[in-house]
Every structure is written in structure tokens, then in C-alpha cells.
Design goal:
Elements: H1 7-16, H2 22-31, H3 33-48, H4 52-57, H5 66-95, H6 97-116, H7 121-149, H8 155-182, H9 194-199, H10 201-211, H11 218-223, H12 227-237, H13 247-263, H14 272-275, H15 277-295, H16 298-311, H17 316-340, H18 346-371, H19 377-397, H20 401-409, H21 412-443, H22 449-466, E1 495-498, E2 503-507, E3 514-517
Antiparallel strand pairs: 1-2, 2-3
Helix pairs in contact: 3-6, 3-7, 3-8, 3-10, 3-16, 5-6, 5-7, 5-21, 6-7, 6-10, 7-8, 7-20, 7-21, 8-17, 8-20, 12-13, 15-20, 15-21, 15-22, 16-17, 16-21, 17-19, 18-19, 18-22, 20-21
Amino acid sequence: MTQAPTAMEVTQDQMKKQPFKWSTILFTAGAAWGAASYGYSASIIGTTLGQPSFLNYMGLDTNPNASALIGAMNAMFYVGGIFGTISSGWLSDRYGRKAVIMGAAALIFVANALSAGSVNIGMFIVFRTLAGAGSFAEVTIVPLWINEIAPPRVRGVLAAINGVFVDVGYVSASYVGVGFYFAEQNPLGRAIWRGPLAIGCVPCILCILCTWFVPESPRYFLLKDQADKAWEVVKSLHSRDDDPDHAFASAEFYQMRRQLEFERTLNVSYMEFFRRPSYRKRALMSCGLTFCCIASGSLVINNYGTILYKGLGFGTTQTLLFQAGWLGTAFGTSLIGLFIVDRLPRPVFMGLGFLGCGITMTIQTALTANFIGSTNRTALAGTVAMLFIWVACYSIFLEGPSFFYSGELYPTHLRAKGMTLGMVSLCISSIIWLQSAPTAFKTIGWKFYLFFIIITFLAAGTILWKFPDTRNKPLEEIAKLFGDDDLVMIYQNDIIIDPQNQAVVVDEKNRSSTHVENSPVA
């Protein structure tokens, strides 16, 4: 007769087969429409600036301060992002992750609608600022929510869906902009630029509708001492059909609950990031990563792509098609990242991305320096090709981690605030580069790219050398990577599920006793 498996064998087998349910994927995709709202709102300015009707309506084709105004239109989106990011961290801890995702989508809806109805440049900038506030609340809380509902072994894949939807927003905005450019010959041509901005309301509606049906983060419920609700979410999302006893879900939930019981006793102020060296290190890593992702040139190329292509001698139609193709490449290659993000250590994965971006940017800069203004079409085409290869490297290796890696670094009681710090850093970096780019391209030209190259290679070296690998690790155990063993209440490997007695059996590390509970919720 075959011997029944022991409790330890049941637990180990379930740990190896962590669930990857279609409902979790669908919920993730539903909430990720918030990321698409950000992507569309952030990217639509690129093709809007390429629309002759917009430039003419706002007087930017004749205004001597056009470069400064264009810089302000881009930068104020990210100024709004700072306020949206800071408020979203506090609101998500107080009212829940879902409430902030839906509220931010509503704010973007209103801001995009009123941007489309703007009658002067001042009004346009004001509502672009509001759109930025809502957009950055989305890309702060959506990846945080995904990190908190995903099983450890597939967390990278699910979190990378956020990056894919950011690119969905980017590429949609670009092709909508191209389509409306070709429609400028109709009688409404003078106002045709309003259409693409108004369409930015669509992903907001989808986000609100879909998020209504997604579950709240179980870790948020535990922060609010609502263990029953948290267990229902974990049991629903982290159980398999061949696991009727919910072995993995029970072990994971027990670890979450024990950890959150402890973390609720800790200080949750921003001062903690300065008091404890390990928290300070985490904050520097998350802020450094998001700053360098923007400083690699990603946003400058995205927002000023039409200007870059015109500078290479291409016409308006070609520049808009290049911009759309560039963002289409970003979307297509971000899908590749889904299949490899959890196969490589996080530092290697991100380090490869920065190295690829640095190498292609170096080649692109050399071609620009030597052939800009020339009639060598082959060299100019090569310059454009390097920009396409650059975005492939960025989208595969950096688009996803630029948002979700920060959320993996922090304990639950500080995760929202930690994500806030990372996104504020991203906004500050965006303001610096977007505000300076128009003037820099006019004054120092191709030399502006040297800043991107230097920062990109420095980021690659630092990440490969210093950043920890959070892949496949429960969020409750990340503290150990920073030497904070005293902050880890229990390790998943110490949890044993006894299916015969319906009990959670815990072998406490470095202790001789065994702890038994009859329910993961008790």
C-alpha cells in the first residue's frame, strides 16, 4: 500500500506548484487599465505637438517662447504627478488600493476631457497638470496592488502586465494621433487636435468598470485587521483545483497575517526611511532606479520624438509614422519581457536592459553627431533604427521593473509610502529632462545624449553590483535581503500544512517548540 504523504511533503509539493489562475490574470489586466490611462495621457502630448492644427491654435508656430511653453506643457504633467503620487500613498493606506485606482481614473477622465476643450495654452497646461496627478496615482498604486495579490513565483509576470498596459496606452495614443493628423483636411481641421485628447477618457472608463470587480489587496485588509476578508481573497486567488485543502494559500496567508500583526505595531511615518539604515538603502534603490529609467532618455525620446525625427530631416508624415512605429515596437517587445522576467535574477534582468540601452544610445549619438544635416539617407535611417532597438531593450527589461521593483523592496506597512518615494523620484527626473530638452536640443544638440549615456552605464553597473534579487521571494521575507532578520516573523519554509488535522504547523526558526493553529484565519 502506498504511504500517504506527510504534512511536510504536502507543503513542499504545493510550494513548487504555486497557483497561476486565469482569474488572477484577468483581475490584473482589469486594474492595469489604470496604467493604460497613464500611458495614453503621458504619450498623447508627443503626437499633439506634431499636429499643425494644435501648434497653430495655441500660437506655438509663431510664439518666440514656444520652446519654453512646450517644455512647461510636458513638465507640468509631472509636477501634477508629484502631488498625485504623494496623495495616493496616504489615500491607499486609508481607503484601500481599489478606491484610489478608481478615483485616479475618474480624475484623469475629467482632466483629459477638459484638456480637449481647452481654449488657450494656460487652460491646457492646468488640465495637463491634473491629468498628471491622476496618472501617477495609477502607476503608483496599480503595481503595488499587483505585488500584493500575486503569488511569489509569478509576481514578476503579473507585475510586468502593468508595464505592458502602459505601452498599450502609449501605442494607442500614437496611432490615434497619426489617424487624426490625416483627418486634418476635413472642415473640422482646425479643432481636430481635440479628438485624440478626448479619446484618452476611454481607458479611464474601462479602468473604473473593471476595477469595480477586482478584489481588494489581502495585505490591505490585514493592515486594517480584517483577517476574514483577507483570507477569502487569498483562498480565491491562490488555490488550485488539485489542492482542495488550500495548502499553499493557508501557508501563505498564515505568513502574511503573522507578519502584518507585527508590522501594525511599527512606526509608519516617512521618518522611518531616515532612521533605519536598511529602509534608507531601500529608498535610495527605488528612487535611484526610477530616476535612472527616465534619465536613460526614455521620456525625452517619447515626448519629443517628432522633434528628433524632424531634426534628422524627415517630414511631418514620416515623423508621426516613426513615432507610432517606435511605440508599437515598445508594446510588442514588452510582451517578450513577460516570458523572461521571472527567469532571470532581478539585478541581471535590469542590468541587461541598461547595458542594451547604453550601447544603442552610444551608436545613435555617434551617427547623429556625424550625419545630422547631411543627405546620407542610409546613416539617417540607421540613426532611427538605433532608436527602435533602444526602445526594444527598454521595454523588454526595464518597462515593468521600473514600476514594480520598488514595491517589492518594502514591508507592507511602508509599501505605499515607499512606492510614493520611487514615483516622486521618477517625476522629478521627468521634470528635469523634459524641461531642459527643448533648449538643450537647440543649444548643444547631440551632446545632450551624452548625459543619457553616462547615467545609463552607471545605472547598469550599480544595479548589477548592489541591488538584491527579489525574484520568487514572499514579500514578507524581503527584509532578510537587507539584513533585517529581526523584522521577519516567519519564513514560508518553516510552515507545514497538516491536511489530516486541518492545522497549520509552524517550526519556529532556532526554536525547539512547534506552534499549531487549526485555522489560518484564527
